[in-house]
Design goal:
Keywords: Amino-acid biosynthesis, Aminotransferase, Branched-chain amino acid biosynthesis, Pyridoxal phosphate, Transferase
Number of helices: 7
Family: Belongs to the class-IV pyridoxal-phosphate-dependent aminotransferase family.
Helix content: 25-40%
Enzyme class: transferase
CATH architecture of the largest domain: Alpha-Beta Barrel
GO biological process, one term: branched-chain amino acid biosynthetic process
Order of helices and strands: EEHEEHHEEEHEEEEHEHEEEHE
Catalytic activity: L-valine + 2-oxoglutarate = 3-methyl-2-oxobutanoate + L-glutamate; L-isoleucine + 2-oxoglutarate = (S)-3-methyl-2-oxopentanoate + L-glutamate; L-leucine + 2-oxoglutarate = 4-methyl-2-oxopentanoate + L-glutamate
Number of domains: 2
């Protein structure tokens, strides 16, 4: 997907022209995957653009940096203000924001201690398209999710994303929309870029972080909304057969929102957009657009 260029990118405290936000070819993070990132959405509301759950995204960025031993030279408050400064400058009404902290040019080799941390914030237009009513088609990938004992799944780090990229390429080459990854023990983990949910007999289930799945902020949003609707929620181990036998399956992520699943491995699901999936998708849309007052605290006006 081509990225629509904005006017500027925030780079280590300075707004620089989009095409001048560059790094050296010997940047440590480029060679060794030593970086952490966040994807955050800005939605158009009746009161102007607003960032969804900005504080939670920045807390996870700091937590990820701590786990992989990357010093973060800015506080959450400084990064929040920098984000709003960038968005006011670009004047985007609906966009995707990428927070990125990585080890820069300084030394080569696996020793991380001699390379400085570089921090950037970029945004590009990302209209909120309603989820396809027909749902997406998933394929179980031959690639397994990273072992939780090899890389911390709670860290949204750049290196482990090669796992997701390989799985997504395999799925799209085979004609599917997205890949489902299994954990090393064969249980369900997550999709290449989204958390996965199964609904059966009115109970909503999603895999735990121990499966190698990222603790998604949109996942947490969906679970909160479901509980508030009175739905029974379980965060527990799932097998692939649990998805085959589900009444409804959907995925969630910052970029995707709440998206129904039509089929898995060629097996059509009973309801591509079932009753609960539809309720949660509509409530999520109302929340991010500012139409649902109970959750306005999740929105940071630009």
């Amino acid at each position: 997907m081509a990225i629509p260029e904005a006017s500027v990118i925030w780079l280590d405290g300075t707004l620089v022209p989009w095409r001048e936000a560059r790094v050296h070819v010997l940047t440590h993070g480029l060679h060794y995957g030593t970086g952490v990132l966040e994807g955050t959405r800005v939605f158009a509301t009746a009161d102007g653009p607003a960032v969804f759950r900005l504080a939670e995204h920045l807390r996870r960025l700091a937590r990820s940096a701590h786990m992989v031993r990357i010093p973060l030279p800015y506080s959450a408050g400084e990064l929040a203000e920098a984000t709003l400064d960038l968005l006011r400058t670009t004047d985007q009404q609906a966009c995707y924001v990428r927070h990125f902290a990585f080890l820069g040019y300084g030394a080569m080799g696996l020793d991380m201690r001699s390379s400085p941390t570089v921090v950037s914030i970029a945004s590009w237009e990302w209209p909120d398209h309603p989820a396809d009513g027909d749902g997406i088609r998933l394929m179980t990938s031959s690639w397994r999710r990273n072992d939780p004992n090899s890389v911390p799944p709670a860290a949204k780090a750049t290196g482990p994303y090669l796992n997701s990229a390989l799985a997504r390429r395999e799925a799209t080459d085979a004609g599917y929309d997205e890949a489902l990854l299994l954990a090393p023990d064969g249980s369900v983990s997550e999709c290449s870029a989204e958390n996965v949910f199964a609904v059966r007999d009115g109970v909503l289930r999603t895999p735990p972080p121990g499966s190698g799945a990222l603790e998604g902020i949109t996942q947490d949003t969906v679970l909160t909304l479901a509980r508030d609707l009175g739905v029974e929620v379980r965060v527990e181990r799932l097998l692939r057969s649990d998805l085959y036998a589900a009444d409804e399956v959907f995925v969630s992520g910052t970029a995707a929102g709440v998206v129904p699943v039509r089929s898995l491995d060629g097996r059509e699901l009973p309801a591509a957009r079932g009753e609960l999936t539809g309720k949660l998708a509509e409530l999520y849309r109302a929340v991010v657009s500012g139409e649902e007052p109970r959750y306005r605290h999740w929105l940071t006006p630009v």
